Amino acid sequence: MIPYIRGLHSITCIHFLPNMKILIPLLFPLFLTVNGCLHISGPSNKNCTPTDPSVFLFAYSNDLDRSDLIMYYQLTGPIYNTHRSHGLKFNVAATVRFDTKIREDIVFHEVANEDDKLFHSQNAAGTRVEQQNVDPSQRFDSSETGSDVLDMLERFIGTNYKDLCGSSALIVMSRSPNEVEISKLVTKIREYHITLNIVVRVPFSGGHRPETIYDLAAKTNGQCAFTNVVRDQAYHWMPNILNAFTYYSLNLKVSGTGTMVLPPLTLQKNATLDLGVGAQSSATAESFQNLTLSWRNSQTGTTGSFSRTREQMNQKSLNFFSKEKFLEAEAATYELTLDYNYSLEDTVLIRMNSLQPIDDWLPYQNSSIETQ
Length: 372
Ligand SMILES: *[C@@H]1O[C@H](CO)[C@@H](O)[C@H](O)[C@H]1NC(C)=O
Ligand SMILES: *[C@@H]1O[C@H](CO)[C@@H](O)[C@H](O)[C@H]1NC(C)=O
Ligand SMILES: *[C@@H]1O[C@H](CO)[C@@H](O)[C@H](O)[C@H]1NC(C)=O
Ligand SMILES: *[C@@H]1O[C@H](CO)[C@@H](O)[C@H](O)[C@H]1NC(C)=O
Fold this sequence. Notes:
This is DUF7154 domain-containing protein. By secondary structure, this protein is of the alpha/beta class.
């Protein structure tokens, strides 16, 4: 007997008992078409909403310097405070160090305190990062060795932790992966709606395929910023780290100069949106010249815009721009236009995030929209 409830997949999930696992591989393909909500193994659920309790993962490469880890406190303090004061989303902190000779476990900092769980979890996570720090003796011996960041993400998902769905990961790294093929990982990250905020310290400490990281962020509605100075108030230039709810996400392939009308943004409720723009796919690209992103409220005709030039790139951000309160907007439909100026082809990532909860996940994009 296969139990199923038609049409209730967003509300009701069918929980399989562990001893039914053997049956699942056979039933799953058939079953998914009738009921999108299945717990195949373990208690983790793929059908969460953006506001369901989830995990905040801090993952850092052992290639970083001790002093880079101050970023942890600069970033996670505001993140947790914001989420605590708004009663939002994250309810457990997780940490892991990667790029080590001996692989290390992902630790979920579960605490007994019921009153302020996130606060105590964050404290435990902070203590762990402080004690673990970085260990130069555990670094890979060769700069040819690629980062194991993709393996780390596979393992994070593989934990099947109960609140895995809808998690956010802040990943700080300096070594590129050597892999190019990421489609399996992309599928998993999408299934669990995991948001990636990746900060890459350059120059790279090793590895050969930096473009894989940008590609991973692009395909999962995440962000990827290259920087020379990890330790400098990164949340000022990566706003999505603070604002967990994604309202707009678009990847565009651009080259030359032109104007492109983008898909409009419809706000059901008043919202304040921060903007993040990945202007080029690497720290060293020379393609980006300047761009302007403009909005127009189609009901009232109010307009606004954001412009940046190549000269405005600085050490803090070698490919990424952000603008707090890009749109402080009332419920309406907003027309969006991008004016771009690139000397070579590149991929632009446009993201708008808010602290105001949103009901649904945005769709994912496999290939960047091409400009004419
Ligand atoms: C989109 O990408 C995912 C992951 O790479 C892949 O599994 C899926 O088949 C792709 N879909 C299309 C329509 O190309
Ligand atoms: C494009 O960038 C170049 C170099 O910065 C500049 O000279 C030119 O005026 C720009 N053109 C447009 C249309 O933005
Ligand atoms: C680039 O900058 C130039 C000079 O300020 C300006 O005229 C042009 O409109 C800008 N182009 C874009 C695409 O923002
Ligand atoms: C939304 O914003 C408009 C304009 O600022 C304001 O008049 C309205 O009261 C706001 N609505 C809500 C529900 O806050």
